[in-house]
Write a structure and sequence with these properties.
CATH topology of the largest domain: D-Amino Acid Oxidase, Chain A, domain 2
Oligomer: single chain
Bound molecules: flavin-adenine dinucleotide
CATH class of the largest domain: Alpha Beta
Number of helices: 10
Distance between the termini: 51 Å
CATH architecture of the largest domain: 2-Layer Sandwich
Structural class: alpha+beta
Number of strands: 23
Length: 458
Amino acid sequence: MRWEGLLEFASRQTGFSSSGRIEIVGPIHRKCPAVVVVAVHKIAERCKQATEGSAAIGLERTEEPTRRAMPSCEVIVVGLGAVGSAATWHLARLGTKVLGIDRYKPPHEFGSSTGETRLTRAAVGEGVEYSPLALRSNEIWREIETTTGETLFVQCGCLTITGRPNKSMVHGVSKFFDNIVASAERYNIPHEIFGSADALRSRFPQFAVSGTEVGFLDKGGGYLFVEACIRTQLRSAVDCGAELKFGEKVVTFNSSASGVTVTTDSGERYDAEKLLLAAGAWMPAFLPEKLRQCFSVTRQFLHWFEIQTNPERFSKDCPVFIWEVNRKSILYGFPLVGDPGAGLKVANEESEGIVDPDSVDRVVSEADKAKMYETYVRPFLPDLGPRSIKTAVCLYTNAPGARFVIDTHPEHEQVIFASPCSGHGFKHSAAIGEALADKLRNCLPRVDLSPFDLRHLR
Ligand SMILES: Cc1cc2nc3c(=O)[nH]c(=O)nc-3n(C[C@H](O)[C@H](O)[C@H](O)COP(=O)(O)OP(=O)(O)OC[C@H]3O[C@@H](n4cnc5c(N)ncnc54)[C@H](O)[C@@H]3O)c2cc1C
């Protein structure tokens, strides 16, 4: 083996490459592989001892080591939000050695899983193929509640209101209302249909319907406590043996036939057999250019407005609601959670264009609050007043057709990526996490994820 060959070999073995001066310790004999190996080991040892001083010995990390030592864990999960926390917990409870890494400490307010609550629906307007995910997720939330004593899921029902049932469209999905009805029929989901505005008004006087509206009450729907779901799944994952690292940002990953290596901003490298990327709004950066362009990240607002009159209308028996109030966006909202003084949570889906998750403005301006009140609150929820009690900013990662995109990474067969957002992913995240854990363990997923693979991305 020639000098250059040896250095290349050493660098492949150790993941370090020569930059300028390199000092080989130990004897080297051209024709004796054993001696070469000793030399390589010595390089590796010195690199390990001197990570700080790697420049001093003329070595630095290469981007793509092609051989590694035995991985220290079976699966690495990058991103421990809705999807990552669920997958990590399922992997750990099934006995898989899993390492979860997050750049922050979830639950946190910087990604897509913040703002106290998320609406859940069993009959899903985005397409009947989503219903099995929601139904299985609801079972999982209940299982977690039973084992941990936490409250995660309040099944108060979900009311969808539309004034144009035949032309219903929500976040770009046409036939939204028809899909809900079809889902309910296919999966036997208990529901009630309100065929006129009068029928809606007499049952739900808090909603100022004005003439042509009809409604669908999905009795399997309700809301989830978003931060509690993530916190509880992460705690359960640790109880089952998962290792979690917070405050470390994954900057790169690479793979070879023997596994994957992940490098973080603190200079740590972690090896595993497989990798799950569940990085939410930061996911596109991990994908090839062409695929990355299919995603757009938008800034969304959550508002809590004061309840001026009839607070009882928003507590007992009040469902979560989605209302197609205009052609631009829906108005959606929640019943009272806790004290009436905390206000009622409502939102729309308007956005002002694509943002960078690292530099997004997290302040909701007075003008934005006023616009929300005037356009979406005052005409439809007359019991609410203009005083804004609280706001939050949260990120949608949108894919065409509001689809979820979950598949093997196009360039790395040991890597799975999961982007189930488009503004409606939380309710499904428990089942997606479970199915991803199955996939990563080479088992048949309990719920079929194939409707969300790359073939369905238009
Ligand atoms: C305003 C708003 C309202 C919504 N309402 C609903 C609703 O009512 N019902 C519903 O079902 N869904 C709803 N959604 C969608 C739902 O919240 C998302 O689909 C879901 O939270 C996405 O989960 P995730 O795991 O993909 O992302 P996240 O939960 O954001 O997790 C991604 C994680 O990856 C980490 N990460 C990113 N990059 C790196 C890196 N390089 N290294 C390490 N870690 C990294 C982040 O820190 C983060 O913790 C809403 C979303 C928003 C924004």
